[in-house]
């Protein structure tokens, strides 16, 4: 390190006039508390020949932004930040629901959740998935799944990271949310395994050179492929879905436990709801509260599919509440009339039907 210091001193004649070189520390690791206090305000400036006190260093540091000649030494911070960025957990955000129809607010949920998770410094969102529910859900006013799927696909065309998955929607029977989460988590696992197998095949070809992760240089390919972290699938929802967890017989308690413990929730709050209080009043949610991420929506938006359908039935404009291609699709297929709103009227919601069946 002393040799590097001498080289830097020789190459930077501006620095030599500001006192002994030992005032400038080059760290191979994190600094001690004493060293950190010594260098925290260290500033080398053409207008300050010597900084004699901690107060002087702090004053100089505050002026650093406005002084183009100033040089702040923070040699270990950038490498530490880069190392932390590599440790972030990859996340796939999964949103389930009717999407009847999909609105701009549904897309906003993904953007808000991604911004929040990235801001924690612990996560990196790699994908968003919209999974419309099947017709077997039997919700009142639910139009055919093929229409809802097509509208969701049109809406997702405006995003480069949100995709639509048809696996759940095209099933005849309703699929429980926890099973949808399991399906997509398994898909992520299989995807990683396929990626590892492809790398192994391409690397075994004669004369085909491939780059390998520096962490895997001395590890067999089979182990190295398995060691790559699989993205975590987290359930993305609004406050209304979170609060529905307290509706009797709508969710199985064991499914709620699995969702919040094994996958996790990212919930976008809304006006008129108190998600924190709801979590506090639920023993299950409180137990796994550290795996529930509450995201504040500061630009309030009260758009809902229910309100959009009501406006459409009454012949009112819903432009700018839906992506334009979705609005065009609704008009072309004459969706959401008084007749369509009565669909499934009188039927019991499928999860309520299943969960209230008496054991034989």
UniProtKB/TrEMBL annotation:
<dbReference type="GO" id="GO:0005524">
    <property type="term" value="F:ATP binding"/>
</dbReference>
<feature type="domain" description="Cytidyltransferase-like">
    <location>
        <begin position="94"/>
        <end position="310"/>
    </location>
</feature>
<dbReference type="InterPro" id="IPR005248">
    <property type="entry name" value="NadD/NMNAT"/>
</dbReference>
<dbReference type="GO" id="GO:0005634">
    <property type="term" value="C:nucleus"/>
</dbReference>
<dbReference type="Pfam" id="PF01467">
    <property type="entry name" value="CTP_transf_like"/>
</dbReference>
<feature type="compositionally biased region" description="Basic and acidic residues">
    <location>
        <begin position="192"/>
        <end position="202"/>
    </location>
</feature>
<keyword id="KW-0662">Pyridine nucleotide biosynthesis</keyword>
<dbReference type="GO" id="GO:0009435">
    <property type="term" value="P:NAD+ biosynthetic process"/>
</dbReference>
<comment type="pathway">
    <text>Cofactor biosynthesis; NAD(+) biosynthesis; deamido-NAD(+) from nicotinate D-ribonucleotide: step 1/1.</text>
</comment>
<comment type="subunit">
    <text>Homohexamer. Interacts with ADPRT/PARP1.</text>
</comment>
<dbReference type="InterPro" id="IPR004821">
    <property type="entry name" value="Cyt_trans-like"/>
</dbReference>
<protein>
    <recommendedName>
        <fullName>Nicotinamide-nucleotide adenylyltransferase</fullName>
        <ecNumber>2.7.7.1</ecNumber>
        <ecNumber>2.7.7.18</ecNumber>
    </recommendedName>
</protein>
<feature type="region of interest" description="Disordered">
    <location>
        <begin position="189"/>
        <end position="215"/>
    </location>
</feature>
<dbReference type="GO" id="GO:0000309">
    <property type="term" value="F:nicotinamide-nucleotide adenylyltransferase activity"/>
</dbReference>
<dbReference type="InterPro" id="IPR014729">
    <property type="entry name" value="Rossmann-like_a/b/a_fold"/>
</dbReference>
<comment type="pathway">
    <text>Cofactor biosynthesis; NAD(+) biosynthesis; NAD(+) from nicotinamide D-ribonucleotide: step 1/1.</text>
</comment>
<keyword id="KW-0460">Magnesium</keyword>
<keyword id="KW-0539">Nucleus</keyword>
<feature type="compositionally biased region" description="Basic residues">
    <location>
        <begin position="203"/>
        <end position="212"/>
    </location>
</feature>
<keyword id="KW-0597">Phosphoprotein</keyword>
<keyword id="KW-0067">ATP-binding</keyword>
<keyword id="KW-0520">NAD</keyword>
<keyword id="KW-0548">Nucleotidyltransferase</keyword>
<keyword id="KW-0547">Nucleotide-binding</keyword>
<dbReference type="GO" id="GO:0004515">
    <property type="term" value="F:nicotinate-nucleotide adenylyltransferase activity"/>
</dbReference>
<dbReference type="InterPro" id="IPR045094">
    <property type="entry name" value="NMNAT_euk"/>
</dbReference>
<keyword id="KW-0862">Zinc</keyword>
<dbReference type="InterPro" id="IPR051182">
    <property type="entry name" value="Euk_NMN_adenylyltrnsfrase"/>
</dbReference>
<comment type="similarity">
    <text>Belongs to the eukaryotic NMN adenylyltransferase family.</text>
</comment>
<keyword id="KW-0808">Transferase</keyword>
